[in-house]
Amino acid sequence: MPDCDKIALDKRQDIIDDLRSTLVGLDAVLEETIPRGVGFHRDEDAGLASEEREILARAYDNRIISVIVATCSLAAGINLPARRVILQGVRMGFNTIGPAMLRQMRGRAGRKGKDEIGESFLCCESGELDDVMQLLKADLPRVESSMKPEKRGIKRALLEVLTVRLATHRSSIEEYIRRTLLYHSMDRGELSHWVEDTMQELKSLGHVQVGNNGLYEATPLARATVGSCMTPEDGIFVHDELQKALRAFVMDGEMHVFYMFTPINIWGIGEINWRIFRNEIERLNESGMRVLEFVGISPAFVNRMANSGKQLPEDDEEQRRTARVYRRFYAAFQLRDICHEVPIPHVARKFEIARGLVQTLAQTCEGFASGMIQFCEIMGWGMLKSVLEHMSDRLKAGARADLLDLARIPFVKSRTARVFWENGVQSLRAVAEAEAKDLVPLLLLV
């Protein structure tokens, strides 16, 4: 180990202790590298959970560790200056990085207020020299409107301005468009036709209607969609799913609620391992099997996919909608295990995914659940809202119902709450009345 003073070693040991106390526990590699002043920082796809990434970023920013090996998520994402940046190659996957990404990553070096100078090195093979030289000389790309046709942002933008009544008729919509970047970067005639087509589409989807006075009016569906921070298409999907739940909601089990709280956009989180999916279905009780039927999951289809090794067909809108239901239910199994206090590393191993993805699912579900409850409230579905609200506290705590009281204590996670409960400290009052000498031994068990 390189020479290092005791104060630095103690600080690095504190970092190891912080990592050990996270929900996912201490990574074996980090346990070896941090005492040497080296860490790694990867996004959830590559395996680190958000708590781990925050601890490591803070340790590096405070100069407790001197070297951090990172993916582009660190180099191009959070604000973390460096004295020296070393880039290993110019590719992200199979693609060459763009000039904006390169400048962003190189800009980490020599940040004002941290270092007087900075250095950046780009390592490449001899066959890549021409590409590297072109990249270094390339101009930065022009700023583009996110409302352009290929980015599909205008539908959501128009829905928002209609819902908040910023625009209520054709002339006010045109005035809104004139104040956007899109208006100054697109042919005016083409843009006018495109806005008209978008308004017609919003009407056909049931988001907008024209009143007797000729003014545009947002429907309850539109208000629920905007209030829940969804796209118009996602709002339609959620509306249909909730309407099915209104007709038949399985109340003698938890699986239906877990499915409803699982986000509808779960790319990367809910890619299906059909063998695992089949095994989980086989373990469902009668209540869970009824949920499968109500939401449209076919166990026979899952079995065929597990035997064939094929991927879900998504050639048309109906197939994509079906694929979304299957992915969502598969992710709901992971959410169920989290709320049953199964440790995140165990869930990750069971479903053969990175543990960071499991934590991302848990965090995403909390926000999505709030959106679903808001959606029901705006639509006037009070009974369904009450059913979902009953489970939302468990989702936030990541624990069974008996721990909800303890989980309200700041910084007390499900694992700590369970240790308290099993040792007789089972309420907020019990914690408040306990002496430090009684609680410290319990905290050491976590």
Largest sheet: 2 strands, parallel
Q: Tell me roughly what share of residues is in helical segments.
A: 55-70%
Q: So what's the overall shape?
A: globular
The largest sheet has its strands arranged as: 1-2
Please outline the helices and strands.
Elements: H1 6-20, H2 28-33, E1 38-41, H3 50-61, E2 67-70, H4 72-75, E3 84-88, E4 91-92, E5 95-96, H5 99-106, E6 119-123, H6 129-137, H7 154-163, H8 170-178, H9 188-204, E7 208-210, E8 216-218, H10 220-227, H11 232-247, H12 255-261, H13 274-282, H14 286-295, H15 299-308, H16 317-339, H17 344-351, H18 355-379, H19 382-397, H20 404-407, H21 414-422, H22 428-433, H23 436-443
Parallel strand pairs: 1-2, 3-6
Antiparallel strand pairs: 4-5, 7-8
Helix pairs in contact: 1-3, 7-9, 10-11, 10-18, 12-16, 13-15, 16-18, 17-18, 18-19
Summarize the structure.
With 446 residues, the chain is mainly alpha-helical.
Could you explain how this protein is built, in words?
With about 450 residues, this protein is mainly α. Helices cover about 55% and strands about 5% of the residues. Strands 1-2 form a two-stranded parallel ribbon. Helix 7 packs across helix 9, helix 10 packs antiparallel against helix 18 (about 355-380) and helix 12 packs across helix 16. The chain is globular. The mean pLDDT is about 85.
Descriptive keywords:
mainly alpha, two-stranded parallel ribbon, 56% helix
